[in-house]
């Protein structure tokens, strides 16, 4: 896809600009260079660059550091973007631009291409730092070049005004790419997902491996943070890869690995239980690709996903359900804190579930989402009863909803008429005990500590009978907090009592929450890798010292983080 986008940009440059009287200079290959990268940075089409340097097959060509290649003399300059650690066009201030209003179905690359602009130029003129993460909004106004070429019609071997032939292969690539994009908007190319209790908008996109921007676009969702998801609602997702048993192939779920110093393609493949060929194919690379520190490389997720049966099968017994959600109507005098307590929730859960923040105001008769009562089961269990004055065997049996004969048998009482009941004696009885669902067999996880510090408050109930659904880690103001695992940001806002809060959804039904932050470096919809910097230690909310509140939940149920974090 990357190569096709580059070819597309190159082809547009052939169509839009004259190649007459070009000057070529020598370029010495440096560490990290690629053939297409060199061509792109010098404003050349792929075919022009390869032909000029007598390179017949770009995929088989072995690029050598220090090698000299012919390139076009630059008519513009590149500037280094210190934020994104990459090069971008230095925008030509004399160039004419006009306003463009974003329409439904638009993409960043599509707008740039249709106006004869490179991705870098388009992003630079519109102050877009990362077009992969940028969330286009319908009706938004962006700057585009005046040389609009939205409709391109080219005949084979057509000549431009200076007699240069247009590369037919590149034109065909453009046509195929446009046709593919049009086909991708056909409903037949999507699966339909039925929204279930506990689902979230970004979570559905993440679980189905559908890029967030594409997920929002194909479902015509313009304001995801305001969108109210409804149980039973039908949404489009990208087709899920299934094996012969019609089950989702966990191995084919991908995550992103950020290249570090000393990494090699072979080592990355081995560490992620992949063959080198699988890694190269997944990323569209060849064996000669030179890794750069900070590169994002796709790898197959090693986590053992327990996703048997179709995602849309709501009667599936092999996939555990998220905690059920029900509606609650606000009554006069209600507060969110009291509602959360009554429903066995905390404010982090009730705020994130309803897309609220600390400025939100609830109104009488307003409907909000709350967790339904936990799944429970009842059973008769053995217990003991201390006999009180006035008790009889009949009354004890009746009060414990037991048959008298069962009480006698349980206590080995052979003769009812000759048995003397004494106050203070202990009898065995059966009592009805209610237990709630707990998860002893949690799926595989690979969490890391979001911050290394002293744990000042553990999971559970303290001496004041106050419940803590996570752990509190003391820290230093401004220290970095990182994502505990790969996932998608579902919430990034302020919650009363917890300050700045980030919630991340992960694979296998897990979510993590990070609270009392001084600031958040990510927003809802962002994809984060394990160890990515997401915020800073602070003392926001109802605390008076610098610390991090960290919580792990599984299918909506809080889990002691120390069960899943590395030991020691």
UniProtKB/TrEMBL annotation:
<feature type="domain" description="LysM">
    <location>
        <begin position="25"/>
        <end position="71"/>
    </location>
</feature>
<dbReference type="InterPro" id="IPR011055">
    <property type="entry name" value="Dup_hybrid_motif"/>
</dbReference>
<feature type="domain" description="LysM">
    <location>
        <begin position="383"/>
        <end position="429"/>
    </location>
</feature>
<dbReference type="Pfam" id="PF01476">
    <property type="entry name" value="LysM"/>
</dbReference>
<dbReference type="InterPro" id="IPR016047">
    <property type="entry name" value="M23ase_b-sheet_dom"/>
</dbReference>
<dbReference type="InterPro" id="IPR036779">
    <property type="entry name" value="LysM_dom_sf"/>
</dbReference>
<dbReference type="Pfam" id="PF01551">
    <property type="entry name" value="Peptidase_M23"/>
</dbReference>
<protein>
    <submittedName>
        <fullName>LysM peptidoglycan-binding domain-containing protein</fullName>
    </submittedName>
</protein>
<feature type="domain" description="LysM">
    <location>
        <begin position="255"/>
        <end position="299"/>
    </location>
</feature>
<feature type="domain" description="LysM">
    <location>
        <begin position="326"/>
        <end position="370"/>
    </location>
</feature>
<dbReference type="InterPro" id="IPR018392">
    <property type="entry name" value="LysM"/>
</dbReference>
<feature type="domain" description="LysM">
    <location>
        <begin position="98"/>
        <end position="144"/>
    </location>
</feature>
<feature type="domain" description="LysM">
    <location>
        <begin position="191"/>
        <end position="237"/>
    </location>
</feature>
């Amino acid at each position: 896809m990357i190569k096709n986008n580059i070819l597309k940009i190159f082809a547009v440059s052939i169509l839009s600009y004259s190649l007459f009287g070009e000057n070529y200079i020598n370029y010495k290959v440096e560490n990290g260079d690629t053939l297409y990268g060199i061509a792109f940075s010098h404003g050349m089409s792929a075919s022009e660059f390869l032909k000029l340097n007598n390179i017949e097959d770009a995929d088989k060509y072995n690029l050598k550091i220090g090698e000299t290649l012919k390139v076009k003399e630059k008519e513009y300059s590149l500037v280094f973007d210190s934020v994104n650690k990459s090069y971008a066009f230095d925008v030509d201030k004399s160039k004419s631009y006009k306003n463009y209003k974003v329409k439904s179905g638009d993409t960043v690359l599509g707008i740039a291409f249709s106006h004869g602009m490179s991705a870098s130029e388009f992003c630079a003129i519109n102050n877009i730092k990362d077009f992969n993460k940028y969330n286009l909004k319908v009706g938004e106004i962006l700057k585009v070049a005046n040389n609009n070429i939205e409709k391109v019609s080219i005949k084979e071997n057509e000549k431009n005004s200076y007699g240069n032939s247009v590369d037919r292969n590149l034109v065909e690539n453009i046509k195929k790419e446009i046709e593919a994009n049009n086909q991708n908007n056909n409903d037949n190319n999507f699966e339909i997902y039925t929204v279930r209790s506990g689902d979230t908008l970004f979570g559905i996109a993440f679980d189905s491996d559908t890029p967030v921007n594409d997920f929002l676009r194909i479902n015509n969702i313009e304001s995801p943070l305001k969108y109210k998801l409804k149980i039973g609602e039908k949404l489009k997702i990208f087709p899920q890869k299934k094996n012969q048993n019609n089950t989702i192939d966990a191995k084919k779920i991908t995550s992103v690995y950020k290249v570090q110093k000393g990494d090699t393609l072979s080592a990355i493949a081995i560490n992620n239980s992949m063959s080198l060929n699988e890694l190269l194919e997944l990323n569209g690379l060849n064996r000669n690709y030179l890794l750069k520190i900070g590169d994002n490389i796709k790898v197959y997720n090693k986590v053992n996903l327990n996703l048997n049966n179709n995602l849309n099968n709501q009667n599936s017994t092999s996939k555990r359900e998220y905690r059920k959600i029900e509606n609650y109507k606000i009554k006069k005098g209600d507060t969110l804190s009291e509602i959360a307590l009554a429903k066995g929730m905390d404010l982090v859960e009730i705020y994130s579930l309803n897309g609220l923040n600390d400025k939100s105001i609830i109104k009488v008769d307003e409907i909000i989402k709350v967790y339904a009562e936990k799944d429970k089961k009842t059973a008769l269990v053995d217990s003991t009863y201390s006999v009180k004055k006035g008790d009889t065997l009949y009354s004890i049996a009746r009060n414990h909803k037991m048959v008298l004969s069962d009480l006698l048998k349980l206590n080995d009482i052979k003769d009812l008429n000759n048995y003397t009941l004494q106050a203070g004696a202990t009898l065995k009885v059966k009592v009805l005990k209610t237990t709630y669902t707990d998860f002893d067999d949690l799926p595989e996880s690979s969490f890391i500590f979001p911050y290394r510090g002293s744990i000042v408050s553990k999971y559970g109930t303290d001496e004041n009978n106050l419940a803590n659904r996570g752990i509190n880690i003391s820290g230093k103001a401004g220290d970095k907090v990182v994502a505990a695992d790969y996932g998608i940001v579902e919430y990034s806002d302020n919650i009363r009592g917890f300050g700045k809060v980030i919630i991340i959804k992960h694979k296998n039904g897990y979510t993590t929450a990070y609270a009392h932050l001084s600031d958040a470096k990510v927003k809802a919809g962002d994809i984060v890798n394990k160890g990515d910097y997401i915020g800073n230690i602070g003392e926001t909310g109802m605390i008076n010292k610098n610390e991090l509140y960290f919580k792990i939940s599984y299918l909506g149920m809080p889990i002691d983080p120390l069960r899943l974090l590395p030991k020691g």
